[in-house]
Design goal:
This protein has 463 residues and is α/β, with parallel strands linked by helices. The chain contains 14 helices and 21 strands. The chain has a 6-stranded mixed β-sheet with strand order 1-5-4-2-3-6, with helices on both faces.
Length: 463
């Protein structure tokens, strides 16, 4: 391992550091990031940090290289080893160490890996914090001190934190779990055996090759087997998790996919009478059904930018009882710690299902329905995507559309909306569209797809 300044700047993204192994991220890069992170901690008068890694095939070697770099910059490293990202968050709280690094590429393909970093306040770095850190990494002006390594195992404590506040009702729920061979597989059996539920686990072996499907439960096509097993087993619900365990995906009793914004409606309906503050955050990708329901229940909707580093921090800043985003990150602060745990999100739904003799779909009766697309990705290079979105924002302003530009641009019409934004986790432009009718949905979608193609193909800068 050696210091390197030959690091692709595009792996330093909006919410984390993420790239392909070994082309973008290798042991030298991990070591150098460790040296830079340790140096930053020294300058902000911190001496300890928590480090963990997911089950990707490249994670263990990156983990060792990162720790070596941290220790050579004088850090006392609390190493919790193989863990989910929520488990890492909990360890930081448990040990009262508000900074650390989690090695993971979340839901990205198996060839990728990355680092979620926190300098202070238990919050993941984001935006300018990450781009500034890149400059520190490549500058290479690192302190030389001798650190220490403390190995910790918090599995027992974390499982207790997930389960101790739950209150299951008289109905014994039958649930099918799909960890997608991701890191939640190291915890799931031990958690389930403590709960009064009837359960089946599929794809339950920890395997960083993700041999059965891509580990992103927000994409319906990844949950085909889960749907099949829910129907075969006549289960009440199917619950899936992503590669590092901070996202949740839900399948209803009839095998239908329940997007996270609809899941959030079930949760808000359940807790709104029990919480003092009745304001709930959701990201710009979420359906208007969620906004309508919050208002109908007497609550206050708060639409915010996408990205769990942003949404989680904003939920904490505003002291909200609950919030989330379409990708499957949700944050409970009514009787949990406020970080995103796919397992905890699933357990809260099971708790609700156990307390009433109502199915998932029955819990969704009476909501305002809109026709909508899933999140759509349009390939665009990391150097091009910001320019494309900037051009579309300019166009929308020229047309005097009603826009929200907190994250790309969300254009609201009388009968629908369009969202176009640049992805912060890959070389894509992402979009979602919604309308009152299928015909209007296609009209809105076609209009903005034409704009995306036009500006993506255009030579030159922002017009």
């Amino acid at each position: 391992m050696k210091r390197t300044s030959n690091i692709n700047p595009h792996i330093f993204r909006g919410y984390d550091i993420r790239g392909v192994v070994p082309e973008d991220i290798n042991e030298d890069v991990a070591y150098t990031i460790g040296r830079a992170f340790g140096t930053r901690l020294f300058h902000i008068e911190r001496t300890k940090c928590v480090v963990g890694h997911d089950n990707r095939l490249s994670s263990e070697k990156l983990h060792q290289a990162l720790i070596t770099g941290l220790m050579e910059s004088g850090v006392e490293v609390y190493d919790i080893g193989l863990c989910t990202t929520p488990m890492y968050y909990y360890a930081s709280i448990y040990f009262q160490i508000d900074c650390g690094i989690m090695i993971t590429a979340s839901h990205n393909p198996k060839e990728e890996n990355g680092f979620k970093i926190a300098f202070s306040d238990y919050q993941n770095a984001k935006g300018k914090e990450i781009t500034d850190f890149y400059q520190e990494v490549i500058k290479g002006d690192f302190i030389e001190q001798k650190g220490t390594l403390v190995k910790k195992n918090i599995k027992t404590e974390y499982i207790k934190a997930l389960t101790e506040g739950l209150k299951f009702g008289p109905k014994k729920v039958k649930a099918i779990f799909d960890p997608g061979n991701g890191t939640t597989a190291i915890l799931l059996k031990d958690i389930i055996k403590q709960l009064p539920i009837d359960s089946v686990i599929i794809n339950g072996e920890s395997d960083g090759n993700f041999p059965n499907h891509h580990p992103d439960p927000s994409v319906e096509s990844n949950l085909t087997t889960l749907k099949k097993v829910v129907l075969e087993q006549k289960a009440d619900v199917g619950i899936a998790f992503d590669g590092d365990g901070d996202r949740v995906g839900i399948i209803a009793e009839d095998g239908s996919f329940i997007p996270t914004d609809y899941y959030m409606i079930i949760i808000i309906r359940n807790i709104i009478a029990k919480v003092a503050k009745k304001e709930f955050l959701y990201d710009v990708k979420c359906s208007k059904s969620l906004e309508d329901e919050i208002i109908k229940l007497g609550g206050v909707p708060y639409c915010y930018r996408t990205g769990n580093s942003y949404t989680k921090a904003k939920v904490k800043e505003l002291d909200l009882p609950f919030g989330g985003e379409l990708s499957g990150h949700v944050y409970f602060r009514d009787r949990f710690y406020g970080f995103d745990s796919g397992i905890y999100a699933g357990l809260r739904l099971l708790e609700i299902l156990s307390q009433e003799d109502k199915s998932v779909l029955e819990h969704l009766k009476g909501i305002e329905h809109y026709e909508s697309t899933p999140e759509i990705k349009y390939p665009s290079s990391d150097t091009k995507k910001a320019e494309v979105v900037a051009n579309i924002i300019t166009y929308c302003k020229e047309q005097k559309y009603n826009i929200n530009d907190i994250d790309g641009v969300r254009v609201t019409f009388a009968d629908g909306w369009a969202l176009v934004r640049m992805s912060n986790t890959g070389p894509n432009i992402t979009a979602r569209f919604e309308a009152k009718t299928k015909e209007r949905l296609e009209e809105i979608k076609n209009k903005f797809e034409t704009l995306i193609k036009k500006y993506n193909d255009m030579e030159g800068g922002v017009r």
